[in-house]
Design goal:
alpha/beta, single chain, five-stranded parallel beta sheet
Amino acid sequence: MIQIEKLKEFCAAHEHLLMYGAGQFAWTVFPFLGTRGMVPEAVIVSGQPATPTFSAGVPEYRVADFPKKPGERYGIVLALQEIFHADVQARIREKFGEAADVFVLRDRDVEHAIALYSTERMFERLETKDDVSMEEAAAFEARMQEILRHHIGVRVQFIDMRSIGCLLAWVYWCEQRRKQEGDGLYWLLWPVAQPLRKELELKGANAYILEKLSMPGMEVVTEQRLKFWRYFYQKDTASFLFDTNYALADWIKQMDTYFWRRNEAIGGTYLSFTEEEEQRGREQAERLGIYGTFACFSTRDNLYVSKVMKYQTDVAGRSIRYRAYPLGHLRPAMKSLEAHGLQAVRMGAMVGERINWENTIDYAHDGRSEFMDAWLFGHCRFFACDPSGIQSISWLFSKPNAMFNVTIQTTRGDYGAMTTPERDLGIFKKYWLPSEHRHLTLREMIRAEQREDVHTFASVSAYTTYDRMGVVPVDNTPEEVTELVTEMARRLDGTMVYTEEDEQLQARYREIVDTTPMKHNFPWIFRAGAHFLRTNPWFLE
């Protein structure tokens, strides 16, 4: 935390305080500075200002256009990932010369700020006084005594819930809780929302699912549960043990390694529905026109990128090029499911174009709710998707994933992976190298990403690497996705037959994956699609 203390001193020493950045780090650093009474007088960015909501009316300027006053000195806080620091500092020198002092926040410093802010907010909320009725007090007291009868205390620690993809953290903690069930403590997980937005606190991206996250000896704090835990904490503070260390990068690396080692053993479900919820889900599905067996699908489209990343113009452009998949390309694949007795159900919380396809229910537009998101994933046959955080819900139910347009090979920044070759299938986005008139092989992709570090937001840093190489990302074709979906459907109904050639290609794919120096960062422990390997022989060279 020493660096954070230095940040306070830096801000206090400068009458004119600016913040450089408009991405996710800025969404964290700006409100953090506000809690210390150090609101920058302006935000400066490299590209065109996007008027981000995090700045609460503070003006934003492109660095070249900032109205620098002669004779004034500026203190500039860098609130962006380390991979951009050198380029940004060059821009600052060009604009400000010797008239600016720069405070460099490392990636880990931002995580420390998150931990500090989250700890302060946690205690602030735990120490808030409630009006508790006699009936509530009696019920709370009975539950408190029941917990203490079976546990020596309550261990409080943070759980990452900054986005929907972080729901996969629940699987990790469930497995950890089972391994350490004899420690005598009741585990209480406090959700960390990142960026630091109060409206997401104790709600996450799906409040219904967050409310379902509990198991014997462990639960997640939610708005509904907070009143009880306030009562418990204020009545018996000595029973609480707090672990407020929070390093997102370390946690991601730990979880990745754990899932790699456990990928074949992980299974079952980590959420369940009551009989009342089951009936409610069936009734709502029928109203939507969903009957019988169905598969879910989604793709990250441009509306999602424009809304979620409107403050990250450069990153948004890269995200569209590398991750957004044309919705229309999925139409043949969803039509093909009919031959296997499956309806297609479109998922997504933020989608643009409506669709009216054969054999397809546009649930994302018609009747979507947080409850039905969970129910549909819990009852679908499989999920066809490009890599995105929404997959975490399907993995909470251990549902098979048929993944297309897979981009990053060795790391990820905003979604986890819990794939297994026994359950999941995947095919990869192609990277065309114009200078050599060929595609990058899998080995070359992995080699290119070896310079990337899991302590960065890898989806950004890897795209930066590919851009510098002059790579042109190429989407999977509609035929490739249709073949992938068909292969998954046949695997599940027992009619898929693999040839000797298929198994040889699969063995070559696994050999490359299993021998890479970045093995424990390789998230896609799935079976590669048979048609993709047959028709793209260069991929395994």
